[in-house]
Amino acid sequence: MNELLTTWKYALGAFSDDKTHKYDNRVCVIRSVILATYLITNSIICMGVIRHWDDNVPAPNSITIVQTQDRETRIFNAFTQFIKVLMEVDKTSIN
Description:
Elements: H1 2-12, H2 24-51, H3 71-94
């Protein structure tokens, strides 16, 4: 067990400084916590990606409305329709 902990400490980062020898275990715990938070965070992100993988795919029999005209074209078409209606009203009022 002691050999496994020593291997884990060296796997997280080399401990070769004699001045910091008394802090090696604390540094190992801090680095282990950081590693665990990275693993948990990445796992949650991956689970969310997998869960929402095909959310934007429409159902096989669903109707999708596609708007093919841009805003300016729709405004222009509405304006021309309005002018045509006004001209028709004007023609009927003259007679």
